[in-house]
Amino acid sequence: MSDKAASAAIPNNLEAFWMPFTSNRQFKKAPRMFVAAKDMHYTTAEGNKVLDGTAGLWCCNAGHSRPRIVEAVQKQIAELDYAPAFQMGHPKAFELAARLAAMLPSPMDHVFFTNSGSESVDTALKIALAYQRAIGQGTRTRLIGRERGYHGVGFGGISVGGIVNNRKHFGTMLTGVDHIRHTHDPVRNAFSRGEPEHGAEFADDLIKVIQLHDPSTIAAVIVEPVAGSTGVLIPPKGYLKRLRELCTQHGILLIFDEVITGFGRIGTPFATDYFDVMPDMITTAKGITSGVIPMGAVFCTKQIYETFMTGPEHMIELFHGYTYSAHPVACAAALATLDTYEEEGLLTRAADLASYWEAAVHSLKDCPHVIDIRNLGLIGAIELESIPGEPTKRAFSAFLKAYEDGILIRTTGDIIALSPPLIISKEQIDELFGKLRKVLENNI
């Protein structure tokens, strides 16, 4: 791309767009613009190729501009651009729901469609509250999240979430919410490979919350099987099984937020498969369409669904939904995405690459300022020592330099998070970590 073409690709006025989760002033002084993407690479306005080490925002699991998905979207827009989801339907919504339900172990066999992970979380929380009331447990109104959890940015999600900066600016949020502690234990588990050995007992923190509030007041517990946006916190061995036991014992619903771990990220279709733990609901988004069209979904058990299927047949059973629930174009994109995953074996490909990826991530242990490394499947995190008095600056500086050197990484605090498209090759893994090593050794 010529200099003239590159400048033309950048709008003259950057002010009107208030960018999300972005240092707006810094960006607008030196904008970083993507103008195209294909497979494992973005193309910048200057014509440079950038290797995608983050699958966009944890979402482009099948890579970019995949032909089957592109064609499905183009065809669907021309055929049926929109159909209302209230009291009406279209065939692809039911086809997609059936295919998704078939991917999960029984009895997780019903799907409620949303448009994002944030909407999926708020939907699951509302279903949990309504379900407890429907079974005569109307006193169960309390929701339990976890410190350092990320569950989107709706008021429900930030209420049960536990990332301080996502909470502190927005008032009291939902009432009746409590949190158990996170599982990060760098003293015992630093540089763990895969699931840490220590920390299953952290699940017993739920016992203290139950004793404080009484189980008859608690509707649901929500956790990410692998906490992603807070910096990739891998659950200790046995932790999730213990949470399941406690929730079952006390009549509490367990919700897995699989917006990140769903659709092959850790080497199985879902984290419930990997950890052999069955929650009562699963929230998803991102990889359901490989990021092509906004979409999310909540999976729930047959028991939960059928509890609502009472009363007169002409009455609405659940007073909840979205204008764009099961949008036809999103459904077409999702179906083509599932086809792509199946044809290329992508839902389990992370398992094939896991050991190679693990070795590559941990090869950076000797780099300056690295204080911990974590990994599972095709997720990795490199935690850096903070600059005294300037938290987040070291990792953000690495992010900027990595972009200049042709790799896209993500930072949260002073943690570098990596989650490439599932189509990444071993040679591209070598390139990603070779360039990241140079960034860590020479530029921060």
UniProtKB/TrEMBL annotation:
Keyword Transferase included in the entry's annotation: yes
Keywords tagged on the record: Aminotransferase, Pyridoxal phosphate, Pyruvate, Transferase
Cofactor(s) this protein requires: pyridoxal 5'-phosphate
E.C. number: 2.6.1.18
Gene Ontology BP annotations: biotin biosynthetic process
Any Pfam family matching the protein: Aminotran_3
InterPro entries (alphabetical): Aminotrans_3, Aminotrans_3_PPA_site, PyrdxlP-dep_Trfase, PyrdxlP-dep_Trfase_major, PyrdxlP-dep_Trfase_small
Top-level EC class as recorded in UniProt: transferase
Residues in the signal sequence: none
A GO molecular function held by the record: beta-alanine:pyruvate transaminase activity
Family statement drawn from the similarity comment of this UniProt entry: Belongs to the class-III pyridoxal-phosphate-dependent aminotransferase family.
The protein's name: Omega amino acid--pyruvate aminotransferase
Organism for this UniProt entry: Pannonibacter phragmitetus
Upper classification of the organism: Bacteria, Pseudomonadati, Pseudomonadota, Alphaproteobacteria, Hyphomicrobiales
